[in-house]
């Protein structure tokens, strides 16, 4: 309307319109400023017409504006209500909520908008935030920042009306509408995001730990640029300082033994030209001149045009394995040198548990050198944590001194005062008089494993590694016992060592089956039983046809606490039958069975049709270690019962609950 008035050039008409507007505004005296001639009246009428037109245009424009405003308000309300984020408004000075969308009510568990707008931010927050500050105090600070700067984005610990907390991203935005000023809050629950981030951090931590535990390196070979990217572990394998490694072919090949470079290039060519998996094994020459054996595995990656682009892979330092393979083929002295390179500490004690040998690994575990450990032979006992010392001493007296294998986990104090968790495996050897003569064993620092078990609850990697190492350690002990047996001329002692070897092998077989099993908690006893029987027949030369073996095994699954005692029991009964049930040229059948009964029990039966056990023999008062082990393991450890039948041979039946 004002634009139309500005375009009027006739001064007289402009004067008439001015009078009309003044009169319309209530100035009744304005009429007298205009003459009464016809031309003046015509001007007034023209002005009235113009005013009418302008009023009509103004009204139409106002209606359009109001309609646009309603449309925008409806659109805003639709967006407000349909938003997946919780949206609400807060107004000063109380800063309580004045509106909230449905997502807000769902997020905080409010029954209605009316109930929610009676609250303030501190009513939907815990008393204190994660940083320890009171929620009401910190909320006022966040509000003040948003009012001052126009917006404020931050993380906040909220609390639903039922009291359950949740983390959220909060955006406070200042809104100015005329004289009204308020804040719009956008709240988004970030629980899943935080969980995903935490899972990613845990996954990365597990990966790093696994790589370190497995002594594994990671590498990337850019075939286009001919550049190699090695992680810190791989650089250490090669004896290269990671800070100075450039990734060039010259630097990498410079540490590869000259005799191995041709084979390495051939492996690369096979991968690129034939699209085969990359596999190579070579020696790295360190600056000190020492050789380190490296094995690498990788996969070819092609670009979007199908051209070879890179190889990604992993690598291991297999130097220890190579040294062990060499040492196992050499003399006892060479065998000892291998023990000084394994991850575990190896030890030997005399019959009084005084350490007479400790491998150099004891420096890393206990903080004492091998010489210090043997100079103070009870240092291992003095280092035990006071809270664990009683249990360790009791187990040593009850098990080790009686010839039973003992596996203990306890805490020690290193020389520098640090507390470490260790796993000790002791394998005792008794003399002909039944007294303890030697203890061969290993000590493993399991501090990282304990931390992994308690914080990550990821025990599969740990258990597999432990079973694998225990099995390997038991194999080492068996080899040592074979070497040790050469030092004894008495056939009785050598036979005792051979029997002890079969017992250890029975336990090692349990760990081997658990290591290869998908269920680390239990072992499928059917396959284990077959392997144990075949191993015993080979050991005692009973596989020549004189004794026929019959195995009747159901699918019985036992945990390690029951599997090892069962294996030892079967080992003793089979050994006894093979050695004594069929003297001379007598032939016969040896039967072994294991089955589940209907009473949640497992039954083991070992029987033969040989000469039988004398009626005068009381198995619970037997003087032989084998029968002592059978009764002790069956009745004390398995909490089971033994039945012996002597008719037509010998039949041992053992039942225990599961």
Q: What does this molecule look like?
A:
With about 650 residues, the protein is an alpha+beta fold. It folds into 5 domains: about 80 residues; about 110 residues, PAS domain (Beta-Lactamase, 2-Layer Sandwich), CATH 3.30.450; about 120 residues, Beta-Lactamase, CATH 3.30.450.20; about 190 residues, PAS domain (Beta-Lactamase, 2-Layer Sandwich), CATH 3.30.450.20; about 140 residues, Histidine kinase-like ATPase, C-terminal domain (Heat Shock Protein 90), CATH 3.30.565.10. The chain has 22 helices and 22 strands. The strands form 5 sheets. Strands 2-1-5-4-3 form a 5-stranded antiparallel beta sheet. A 5-stranded antiparallel beta sheet has the order 7-6-10-9-8, sandwiched between helices. A 5-stranded antiparallel beta sheet has the order 12-11-15-14-13, sandwiched between helices. A hairpin with a 4-residue loop joins strand 6 and strand 7. The longest helix has about 45 residues. It is elongated and about 150 Å long. The termini are far apart. The N terminus is likely disordered.
Rg calculated over all Cα atoms: 44 Å
* Strand proportion: 25-35%
The CATH topology annotation of the largest domain reads as: Beta-Lactamase
Average residue pLDDT: 80
Structural class of the secondary structure composition?
A: alpha+beta
Topology, number of strands: 22
Helix content: 40-55%
Order of strands, widest sheet: 2-1-5-4-3
Catalogue the unreliable spans: 1-6
Count of the separate structural domains: 5
